[in-house]
Each structure stands twice: as C-alpha cells, then as structure tokens.
Amino acid sequence: MLPLYQVGTRVPGDAAQHENGIAPFNINPKTLADMVKDKSLESLNREGGVDQLTATLQSDISKGISGNESDLKERKRYFGSNNYKRRPTKNFFFFVLEALKSMTSIIVLVCAFISLGFDIYEHGLKQDWYEGVFQVVAVLLVVVFSATSRLLFSKRLEKLSYERNVFKVPVLRDGRLCKVFVFEVVVGDVVFFEVGDQIPADGLLLKGFSLKVEDFVETGERNTIVVTVGGNPFLLSGSNVIDGCGSMLVTSVGMNTGWGKMMSNMSREPDDRTPLQVQFHGIASMIRNVGLAVAMIVFLVLFFNSGETKLFNMFKTIAMFIDAAVAVAEVTIPEGLQLAATLTLFHFFQQMKKDNVMIRKVSACERVGEIAVICTNKTATLTVHEMKVAEIWPGRESISDHGDISVAGNALKLLKEGAILNTSLFVRGLISESDPEICSSPIEKQIIAWAVSENRPRVSEIKTNCEVIHAEAFDPEKKRSGVLIRKREEKEIHTHWKGAPELILAMCLNFYDRNGEVKFMTDEDRKQLEGIITGMANRGLQCIAFAHKRDAEDSVQIWDNLEETELTLLGFLGLENQCREGVREAVKLCKDAGVKVIMVTGDHLHTAIAVAKQCGILNPQEGENDTAVVEGEKFRSYSERERLEKSNEIKVIARSSSSDKSLLVQSMRQNLSRIAVIGHGIHDASALHEADLGIAMGIHGTEVAKDSSDMVILDGNFVSLVNAIRWGRSVYINIGKFIQFQLTINVAAFVLIFITAVSFGEVPLTAFQILWVNVIVDIVAALALFNAQPSDDLMLRGPPVNQSQLLMISTLMWINLSVQAFYQVIVLLTLLFKGTQVFGLTEKVTHTLVFNTFVLCQVFNLLNVRLMEKKKIFEGLRKSKMFIMVFMLIILVQVLTVEVMNKAAGTGKLDRKQWIACISLATGSWIMSLVVKWAHENST
C-alpha cells in the first residue's frame, strides 16, 4: 500500500523560520531525517533520547501535540507536509497527438489534404471542394472524441491511484485519540499501529510489543526487522507491521523520507492494460492491415484501368483514386474498438463507485465477471458488522447480561477484567469508558462494549493499577491473544488469554464454580464444558473463551513469553452471528449463476455450519459428516491430489488457518476455476495475491490486505461483490454488442465500396456520408451500447468462462454479422445497379437511396444487437435512456442530412414513397435478425 499524498501542496526544502526570524523548533528537519534514515542511535542519544526529542518537538507521549490549527500549520511550514512532488498530468493535447500518431490517421489526413488541394486548384475556393474538408473533419472528429474519452479515463485512473491509497491513521492530539488521513500526519504526532498497518511516516518507537515490520524502502527487497525501544527504535515510512503493536513519534514526513523521494519518481498512472484491451489492440491491428492492403489494391486496380495520359488529368485521377482507397480504409478500419473498451471500463468504474466497490487494478473490471468460485470470510462479510454478546458463561454457569454479579462471585469480575485487559486497545493505552467503540475488529469491539457496561469494573481504575509487561497479538494460526499484566497495588502478575474455546480449554487445569471458587477440572467437568461450547456453536454463536493465571510478583521470574499451562478457565462469551440483509438472496443468485461460494472461517465447526445454513451456502441436510464441510486441520492433511478432488465439493472450511485459503486457491486454479478471495487480515495477503481476483474489505481490512488486492469492498458487504460480478459480466456482453454492430457496418461498407470502386471507378458515398457512417460506427454506437444496464439474465446463464481465452467473436455473432452484411450488400448493390433503370431515378437520388437505406439498416441493427440473443428487441428499452437518445439522434441527423444539408452531404431530397421504400428495406435487417435468433434457439 502506497501512502496517500495531496496534489499541489508545498514541499519545503530547508527548515523554515518563523516570521520574527526565530525557528519555532530547536532542531533541524534534515537532522531528524538523517537520524532515522541512517538508524543512528548515536545521533538519537546526542539529541537526548526519545523522551527529550519528544519535548523538543513540543509533543507529549501521553497527550500528543496540541493539534490546533495554528500548531498544525506551523509544523507543516517548518517540517513539511506528508506529501511528495508529483509529475505533471497528461493534458488533452497529449492524447490528441497520441491519436494522430496512428498510421491510419496519418494516411487519411495526407490523402484528404491532397484531395482538398486538387479540388481548390480545379474549382476554386467558392466551388465544390467539400470532399477533402469532410475527410479531414471525419478524422479529426474521431481523434478529438477519442482523445476526450482517453483523457477522462486517464483522470479516472489518476483518481484511482489517489483513492486506492486512502487510509486513516490513529493519532493522539490534545490527549484524545482521533483518526486522520495519512497526508494530515505531522512531525510530533504520536501514531498508533498494529498488525497489518502501514507506517505513515518516519519515526521512533515509543512503546511496542512483539513488534516486527517489513521494511523494503532502502533495499528494495522485503526484510523482516524486529523493532524495539532500546535496540532498534527506528521506523521508516512505507513499512508494513507484520506482528505486534505499538506507538511511534513522527520525526519526518513527505519528501524528507526515503519513501516520499521514491514515490516522487514514480508515475501515478498505473500501466494495467486489461485482457480485453490487449485483444482489441490485436484485432484492430489485424483489421487495419487488411483494410490498408485492400485500399492499396483498389487504388492500383483503378489506376491501371484508367488509361489517362495527360499529366494534370492523371494527377486529378490519382487524387480521385486515392479518395476511393481512403474511403475503403475509413470504413474498414475499426477505430472505435479501443474507444468502446475505454468507455465501457470508465462506466464500470463509475458504477462500482456507486455500489461501494473501489477498483484498484483496471484488469479487475473484466476478471470479476469470470469468477466461478468465491472464497469468503464469515465475520462482517456474510454476517453483520455489529455483533452482540448473547450469552455469558462464567465457569459452567449461564447468566443474563444484567444478571446478579454475586451469582458468579469473583468469576464474572475477573471475566470482565480479562475482557478489558486482553485487548489491543488496553495494550496500547487507548481504552476508556467514554470511547469504547474505537476498535480493530467487530468481535473485540463488542467484547469491550460488554466489559465496560455499567462501568464494572471501572476502566480508569484498571488503567491506573495495571502495567502491561508483555503482549501477544491475536494470531490466526494460534487463534488466541494474551497479555501479561503487573498489578501495582496488589503486587501480582496476571496472565490473561482469550481465543478459540477448545484451545483455551486445553490450556486450563482449573475452573470457577458457581460460587466463584477455583476448582480442579476433572474429565467429567471438561466434557461438560466442551458440551457448553458445542451447544453455543449449534445455536450459531461465536464462542470466545477466557483464561487466567495469578502469581505473586516476587515469586516468579518474568519472561517474554506468556505461560500457557495450568491456567484457570474464567468462562465463555457467546456472540451472535446474524446474517447481513440480502446475503441469502445474493448467495442464491451466485448459485444460479454457476458461482460457488465457499466460507472459510476460524470459527468452531458447528458455528460455521449454522451460519452457512443461514446464508444458504449449505443446504439444510448438509452437516459435519458431509463432504461439503471440513475443518482446516483435515483440509491441510489432504494430499495435493485429494485436495484437487475434494475442493470441488467443499463449501465450508472451519477452524481454518492462514494457509488454507492459499491451498484452496492453488487447488481451484489447477481445476481451471477462476477464484476470488475475500480477505481482510495480513495473513490473507498471500491468498489475495495468488487468487485470480483479490478482494479486500474496506472497513476492517488491513493496509497490507488492501495492497495485495485487486478491488476493495468499501462497505464490507458480500452483496456488493455480487453486484460487481453482475456488472463484470456485462463488460464482455456490451463490448460484444459493439463488435457485432461495428463489424457488420465494416464488412457491408467495405464490400459495397470495393465493388463499386472497381466497377465504376468511384465511391457511391460522398466524404460527408462516409464521415456520418464513421461517426455512427466509432462514436454514436459506442455511446449507445457501452453503458447498458446488466440484467439478472446475465446471472442465470450458468457457469462463467474465462473470456480472455476465448475468441472475441462467438459463432452466433459470426452468423448474425454474416447474415446482416450479406442482406445489406445485396439490397444496396441492387439499388445502385438497377435503381436508375428500374425506378427511373436520377443518379444523385439513387445514391441518396443507397446512403439512406444503408444508414437506416444500421438503425435497426443497433436495436438487434442491444439484446443479441432475444427476439423481443424492445424489451426494457424504456430504462435505456442513453440508448433512446442516441437512437433518436441518429434518425434526426439522418433526416437533416437527406432533406436539409443536400449541398454539403451530396444528397438529393426524397419523397414520401422513397422514404417508405428505404424504411421497408431497412426493416428487413430486423427480420433477418429474428430469423437467425429463432434458428439459434431451436438449434440449442
């Protein structure tokens, strides 16, 4: 994950001085930057150590900086802001020049200017020299529109580069904990961090437990470094916390850090071409080469058949032949393919933003539509974020949340005390009665909320009386967390553990009875406690166990590792797992779409089964003895061959470890299934990276997980992912519609112009008419088809396929394309060759009939491709406002071209009968499409 920095903010060089000439801080920013960069303990000691340096920066370890506006402004002015210099953005003219570099554009423009020169020389400025002008306009119009769309898409990618690095940092200001964006962090801030966080700036460790970071700024390689207060307190911006937690004093920001300097030299716009764009580039290049080759053939045939000998007439004839060749090239080369892809992806970005999905990599726009398997977490993804403590079991007794504390005696008191002490918030010194909601996970949040309810015991008293000696953060492998506490007043050492109930229970030798007395745990007692755990799991509750050990301070030696044996069980908390609204329907929709949902959770087997049934992942009859459910330990014990065989049957993996998702991804990919992985923790990073589509949770996801992902679900809701799949499938469908529409026009126009150019030595369409056809093909159709709303039918077509490995044009598309092009060519050639003789029309009116019928055929063909596999082409048309607007625009401009702009367009006015004839012939395009669709339905 790269730090987020603002654009255009000032990055100072040397230390600034106050207006009165006196520096506001008695230290140089460069001195601080060099000290941390060089990891020099000598320089740190020279500054008086961390405590003295904190005072020099006018900060406080327990309160942070004042944080008022003037203080923040002064710190940014003197030390700089947490941003970096950015490269200038690409402007509109850059993309215009890029488009003009196209070989096709260069050839057409050169030929157009040659033609324009001959027209002006022969007819003068006041005569018919429109042909060359409209050829130039035809190219420039497509170039400008293409440049505009690419500019908008570039800006969207630039914004994506900005948005995908947005994260907030918990800092201490004026004694209060608050979260600020990373670019608002200033020198002197006290920043808190834990596993999965990214270090936002250079700084010094103030307090830390089991702290390890991944530091790759200096070497470019990932190195795991242990950070300690005494030995190595230096933290560098951009490092990832892979274990432990702590707090730091910020000493350097922005361009005064190695990360900032490195980022300033990097391009902000990601070079991430999608498989679709790669295919389009290949298709467009191939067709362009064919079009140019055929255009050259047309020119040579016309030239050698002309027999012209006079020099000027020869040049004039050559210019006319060049016009014909250019016309062939213009209508053949599919310039609109890349434009359609750009518009489709841009629209996908916009829609995903509305649906709470942030795309981090452009290729995810297409890959999400190919997903066949979703590997998802349970907590806060399938279930609601706000969990609640539903059952309380001090020892073997169940009490209500507001039950009499005397019933459980000392057990309940110690249970609440352990719930407060053994949390990341208490270890970092952040917990309080007034602000218990700031937490790193929904489970811990609810445990703390329950523990501080009615202020029993009071957090302030616990904080005053307890000192954290050592802590072990929650580890998905061990499925537990622990803390070693020294109680000052009682002069005792307390060890507190919490985690998976069966693991905590195995560590316990004693338990509390109903009266709160410690008793030895017999085999019968252990079975009874195991029954309590199973019963809670069967009720769909997430069970958390708490254990404790007390020792006199002077009777034990304090070690770095917490004791794990001879503990006393304090009891259990049961947190309810309520499915999110709409999840069951979303899972069903996935099943209908051929997308398998696998829940991978660290919860108890029975809890996982109960929740999976609530969500619809498991059928009511499936259970622990079914092949659809497996525990992580058993899954890991499978051989590679067994995993390949059983992975197709598995729907739930309970008591999973971090490696289970990676093993599942490897098995699914060997089975040629496209798999998406949902993760939020640092241990999910490997699976997210290996999956075809890595998806991080925006609410609880760590920065490491987000950095390894392709997209982020901002609201952490599984339903949002299903919406993304629906839109992802529509990407290929919309592009397929455009390809069929464009290639139909390309083929029909190519055959028509080629035959008439060779037969008559001229093109039946004027430059203006070719311009209008190109606008329809390259611009208008793209606008009509790129933003079609996806229907639920897309999710009911069975298992998806890897679209990037398929031919872009399906068999049905080839059939539709061939039939439509054949019909149009036959009708237009008949009008062209027989129109003057049979209907007694002038040549100009005949050519106008050909042009008008050709355009109207495309109008009906646009309706045909809107729903390529449906015979009811008007179904859902009212909802497609953009399509209706474009459809009406084409008809309006066509009427104006034929009836009003006769001189510019080279058309003759048509009477009512002729218009009816054109519409009737064009309607045949619709009829041919219905025949093809009917035949396809019957054949399948």
From TrEMBL:
GO terms for molecular function: ATP binding; ATP hydrolysis activity; calmodulin binding; metal ion binding; P-type calcium transporter activity. Residues 763-934 form the Cation-transporting P-type ATPase C-terminal domain. SUPFAM superfamilies: Calcium ATPase, transduction domain A, Calcium ATPase, transmembrane domain M, HAD-like, Metal cation-transporting ATPase, ATP-binding domain N. InterPro entries: ATPase_P-typ_cation-transptr_C, ATPase_P-typ_cation-transptr_N, ATPase_P-typ_cyto_dom_N, ATPase_P-typ_TM_dom_sf, ATPase_P-typ_transduc_dom_A_sf, ATPase_P-type_domA, HAD-like_sf, HAD_sf. Residues 168-266 form the P-type ATPase A domain. Residues 47-115 form the Cation-transporting P-type ATPase N-terminal domain. The chain crosses the membrane at residues 92-121, 133-153, 286-304, 324-349, 743-761, 767-786, 806-833, 845-863, 883-902, 914-935. It catalyses: Ca(2+)(in) + ATP + H2O = Ca(2+)(out) + ADP + phosphate + H(+). Pfam families: Cation_ATPase, Cation_ATPase_C, Cation_ATPase_N, E1-E2_ATPase. Its EC number is 7.2.2.10. Belongs to the cation transport ATPase (P-type) (TC 3.A.3) family. Type IIB subfamily. NCBIfam families: ATPase-IIB_Ca (TIGR01517), ATPase_P-type (TIGR01494). Catalyzes the hydrolysis of ATP coupled with the transport of calcium. This is Calcium-transporting ATPase. The lineage of its organism: Eukaryota, Viridiplantae, Streptophyta, Embryophyta, Tracheophyta.
